[in-house]
Every structure is written in structure tokens, then in C-alpha cells.
Design brief:
The complex is a heterodimer of chains A (357) and B (233).
Chain A: H1 27-48, H2 57-67, H3 84-87, H4 112-139, H5 142-155, E1 158-160, H6 163-170, H7 176-191, H8 199-203, E2 206-208, E3 222-223, E4 229-237, E5 240-247, E6 254-256, E7 259-260, H9 261-264, H10 268-281, E8 288-294, H11 298-313, H12 319-327
Parallel strand pairs in A: 6-8
Antiparallel strand pairs in A: 1-2, 3-4, 4-5, 5-8, 6-7
Chain B: H1 6-16, H2 39-43, H3 51-62, H4 80-89, H5 95-119, H6 132-143, E1 147-154, E2 157-164, H7 167-184, H8 192-204, H9 209-223
Antiparallel strand pairs in B: 1-2
Helix pairs in contact in B: 4-5, 5-6, 5-8, 6-8, 7-8
The chains are: A alpha+beta (357), B mainly alpha (233).
Chain lengths: 357, 233
Amino acid sequence: TPWPFKTTRELPHVKNVGASGPEKYTEAFIKKQIEEFNLGKRHLANMMGEDPETFTQEDIDRAIAYLFPSGLFDKQARPMMKHPTEIFPEQRKIQWGEDGRPFHFLFYTGKPSYYSLMHVSMLSVINNVSSQSSTCYSRGACQDLLSLLMFSQNLAGSRWLTKIELEEMLLEKLSDDDYSRFIHLLQKLVALPCTDIEEEYIQKFSKEVPVQLQKVVIDPLQFDERGVAFSTGEGKRKTARATAVIYDNGTGKITVNGIDILHYFPVLQDREQLLFPFQFLGRIGKHDMVCTVSGGGRSAQAGAIRLASAKALRSFVTEKEVEFMRQAGLLTADPRVKERKKPGQEGPRRKFTWKKR
Amino acid sequence: MAAPSAVGLSRRLRAWLPRIMPVRWSRYDPSYLEPEVNKELYQKPPEKLTEEEREQMELKAVRPIKAAPPTLSSSVFSDPMVSKFTNMMMKNGNKVLARSLMSQTLEAIKRKQLEKYHKAPENEKEAIECNPYVIFHQALKNCQPIIGLSSITRGGKTYQVPVPLTDNRKRFLAMKWLITECRENKHRRTMMPEKLSQELLLAFNNEGPIIKKKHVLHKMAEANRAYAHFRWW
């Protein structure tokens, strides 16, 4: 290893020296770890009686979970065997040569990769694009590309990299101001016409938002002995779990755990919540409902039944109305739960009384 | 459906470690949009939508939507202003009591207005407003201050600087003044619905202590006009 760079193991042990930052991993060290990992993978496959050639990471995870069962709550604390590039964080190679002269011309800014990204690469891209656009406008083929881009970037469920992701990519710490400037530059770039050429470059900085709810499968209607159509739905809210069965050709009667809603939910707000999906679709007197609910409190049970009935109603209703129900917030499970109490505090947020002495 | 916050939670926990824990976080991912409960907006045919509404609809079609809170409903009886006021009146999470007080207040307003209506001569009957919701909204509107004061310290002295208020802040101040006025400055034995209905009717007619408080605030702001340049936002 060149002279300014040694791992802590190679240096002679010096006492009373302050911490020199996180441990630095040499390339040789990482390579050794990768070899050990591959060897260990083959041993593990042999142990489990599977083919070493086709042993994937999921198989490794399953094998480790089987061989070393752990009841620890934190998933990161359990025994794991992952590829060394996932465990050891990526580190920058040394940025200066043997004579001490840095390789990158922006080294003394403190954030060479960030500034080079902003000024050198982006500027070159913008110049390319504006030179292309002057030729493009003359051909008059730009409007479609512009609209395509607006759609592909803003609306089709893609987002820019977050600050943490950008820091990981550049291996440098950034401030919020730097990050916001970066995003502004990206947006300006997208707004320019004829960026079709540089779309690959932009795609490096954008990520797909995870799968949308359009993929949910709606169960078809079932028919009971009397020939009446019915459908079931399940819902939950906080600790309450509910199942609802909605029958067609009804009079608007609603029964919860065998009790009429007027007796089960004496509070008006809960009954309003139960009727919300029906009122939204305009089907108040047309359906009968039988529900079972357990757990939670008064309001949580009402919310759980509301979600269950909304899910069951999807089978009775057109796709457009299902989309309207989703946009009204009827088909999303409320993720809010009671926040845990933290040590050193009296409650989830409240701190202990401050005493001066 | 996957839990909405599973992806973001690990990020946030990671952000906790050396740095400060962000306080205003929600269980929803930031990409979740607010639900729209009004039925009429969905029944509008697509030609009548404006540009903005069209864009909003397209955005909503792609993004996930938060669950509607238990206080929100598409029925004609749920009013967001009334719900907000009920929440502000609530003590120790006793929503049942707050809601019953609110309904008794509206009932009391209706009764008083009906009394006035039946006693009034024929030509004045149309001028009397009997709808308690209309009275409530109008009274709150009348109580909203236009300009507020904010304390700014310069050179050791604290000045009261006139400052424009946002809509939310105006509504909050109007409701807060109403409730504190009823809680503190009335006789101990009178019931809250009685006190509130009285105050609301006075505010509806632009009289009463809350309107006076608003005018006092405006006068103070006018008096401290000289310090308006201290504001930097």
C-alpha cells in the first residue's frame, strides 16, 4: 500500500491517539472477503444438500435462518451472510498520487464528485441539448418529445434520488442546499426539449416509485342458497380486525357480532363511519351487512368495519367507482398505530419534568 | 396491500443515529396524497374540469392516497370547520362529550333563531337566518383577524410587529378566542352550549367581546405600523 494509506492493523499500536475515523478497507481485504464468501457459500450449499452452482442469495438467507434461528427483534442483529459489497460500505480510493498531488482537479473543493457532477457533466449535457434543440426546432418534431418527457418523469410514478441515495452514489456528505440545487438542475434539464438523447443520463438519477394499486384483484360476486349475491371483505385498524359480508337486495340492515349497530355503536360518529362507503356510492337502502369484529376500541372497530365493507363493495360496483372510492381514502388501511414509549421519556413524546437541580 | 411506511421506516431510523430525530414525521410515506371525499367532484363530467383539476386527477390516478380519518365523511352533515371546532373544544380526548356539546350548541342557536322568527313581524321574517351552520360559518368569518402581531426582539427590546396571517392561523385564532371567551369570562353555572350559542349569535351580528378583541388587535397593529419593516419574511 502507498505511504499515506495503511489499515489500522498494519500500523504499530500507538496509545492515547484519538480515533482516526471509520476503519478503511483495502481492495485486497475486500477481495479476500469475497473469496471467503464464495467458498462459504459452496460449503453451505453442500451442508444443505443443494447444488453449489445454483445457490442464490435467497437460499443462503433461508439456510442461515434454519441453521441459526434467532428470536432477536432487530433484523440487522440476526446472523446474516451477505456478499461483502453489501456489508462493507463503499469507500473512496485515495485521491492523490505518490507525490501528494491530487488526481481530480476539483479535489480542494472538498466535494470533488459532487461539484464535477454539477458543473462538468450537467453543463455538458445542457450544452449538448441546447445545441441539439436549435437543430430540432427547425425540424419541428419537439412537442411530442416534450410531452412524453413530462409524462415519463413527473407522472408515471418515478421520483428523483433522495439525498441519502445521492450521498451513497457520490460517496460524499452533502448539505440540504447542495441537494436542492441538484434537484433544480435536474428539473431544468427535464424541462428542456429534445432531452430524449440524454434520457439515459437522467435515468441514473431517477427511481421508480413502487408498484401502484391498480394491480389489486377484485373477487367476483358469490351466490348463496337463496340466490342472493353476496361478497366478503376484511379490514383492520389499529388492533381491530373485522370481516364484513354484504348481501344484495337488502333493506339497509347492519348487524355487528349479532347485535344491531344502533346498540353496538351508541356513538353517532361510528355509525356515520359505517355508512360512509354506502353513502359515497349512493347505495344506502340497497344492501344488508353482517359483520364480525374483534380487538381494538370503539373507533378502531368502526374503522375496521368501514374498510371491510368498502373492500366488499368493490365487487358490486364498476371499476371507475372503485377508483373513486380509492381516491376518497376508503380503500387504504390506516397505518397509524400507537407510538411506543421510549426509554428516558415518560411517554412517546413527553419528556420527564426538567428539574434544575 | 403493503404497509405504507415499511420502506421509509428503515431510512428514518437510520437518520436517527448520529443526527437529530425528525419530530414531524407521519406513518405515511411522503408520496401519499390527501383523500377527496366530496361526491360531486367525482360526478362532474370530464369536459367541465379546468386545467388544474385535470392535472390533479391524473396525479391522483398514479399516487397512493391516505386513508380518510374517522372525522371525515361524505355525508351532508359532516363539516370540516365544525369538526375542527369540536376538536378544539375537546378535553382529554373526550370526543363524545365535545360532539354532544357542539350539537347542543347548534340546536340552541336554531331554537333562539326560531323564537325570533316567530315573534318578528311579516316583513322582517325573511331577514332572520335560521340555519345554524350558516350562522356558525358567518360568525367565525366575522371573528377572523386580518393582521396579527408577532414579537420580534431587536437590540434587547421586544417589539410587537404587525404581520400578515395565513388562512389557517386566522381560523385558528377565531375559534380559540370563541372557546376561551366562553370558558373564562362567563358565569360558572351556565352550560357551554348556552354560552357558545350566545357568543356565536353576537359574532354573527358583529357585536360581542370577540369582535371587540379583534378590533383591538387591528388597532394595535395600526399603532405599531412603524415597526412593520422589522419583519423579514
